[in-house]
Amino acid sequence: MADHLQRTRKEIHRATEHVDGEVQDNLQSIDEELQKLAQGSNTGAEFADDEAERFEHVEEKLSGPMDQVDGGEAERALQDARDELDAFRREHDLA
Q1: Residues in CB range of 93: below 8 A, 6 or more apart
Q2: Residue 1 — pLDDT band, cuts 50, 70, 90?
Q3: How far apart are CA 64 and CA 32, in angstroms?
Q4: What is the pLDDT of residues 22-39, one digit of tens each?
Q5: 50-86 CB burial, b ≥16 within 10 A, e <16
Q6: What span, in angstroms and rounded, lies between the C-alpha atoms of 92 and 26?
């Protein structure tokens, strides 16, 4: 179940290696939020409405760093992270 979230976090870590400053700080914050959400998903429980909103919030936060990178490996990693997060949300009817 959490495979998409693990891959999302992996891609965020990959992007973090190619950025610095505020963008890196934002990505680390997003990763921390995803870690908390992933811990909840490992229980196999259904997601509450507030958790669905948290996933949506994380996806929106991911847009900021995506707008701040200029192509390259960081942009590819962030797009992959967003795709994985979107797949997770669709798989669990959180879209």
Answers
A1: none
A2: very low
A3: 16
A4: 999 999 999 999 998 888
A5: ebeebbeebbeebeebeeebeeeebbebbebbbebbb
A6: 26
pLDDT digits (tens, 9 = 90+) for 66-86: 999 988 999 999 999 999 998
Distance, CA of 33 to CA of 67 (rounded, Å): 20
What is the pTM for the complete model shown? 0.86
Q: Give the span between the Cα atoms of 75 and 16, in whole angstroms.
A: 10
Kind and range of the H or E run holding 47: none
Strands (E) located in the chain: none
17 contacts 28 by C-beta, under 8 angstroms = no
